[in-house]
Amino acid sequence: MFARHFIDSLDFAFKGSEILGEVPLTEMPRLQDKLAVPEGKISYMVRGLHDKNGMPMLEVALTGLCQLRCQRCLEKLDYPIQLSSRLLLVQESELDEFSSEEDEQDSIPADKHLDVLALIEDEILLSLPFAAVHPSGTCQLVANGSDRSEKSPFAVLAGLKNK
After folding, report:
1. Is residue 116 classed as helix, strand or coil in its secondary structure?
2. Which phi and psi (to 5°) does residue 62 adopt?
3. Higher per-residue pLDDT: 19 or 91
4. Sign of the C-alpha dihedral, residues 56, 59, 7, 112?
5. Rg of the chain on CA atoms, in Å
6. Which residues are registered as beta bridge partners of 107?
């Protein structure tokens, strides 16, 4: 079983701490309904740092592979996870101020008991496509000749319209 890490996010950032590890996809329950196969691992690195203004941040880097379900052919689709995020840590009282700024910096509330696994799962979920599909022409349906490019059933109606 995966050992969950909980950190004091502000202290973690101020000290420049770092956590490295791997987490099995089976440990992420909210991700399960998006996966075709719940097998695999995600390597992660969470590092505390400061932005150019001295504000505390977390850098999250994730790599791995998950298998989604193609929405065209419903077969497995290998989806590489390769992402890096920088998240500004904001006090609860400052959240409204930071959400209205023009800066496109992602922010999360500072938390004395931040669940690193939940943070990793959130980042993966946010990176997934809305509807995963194989590249055009590579789905099993197309490869098996089940592509619906044969004559349209409405072609008969178009012929009746001209009479």
Report:
1. helix
2. -130, 140
3. 19
4. positive
5. 22
6. 88
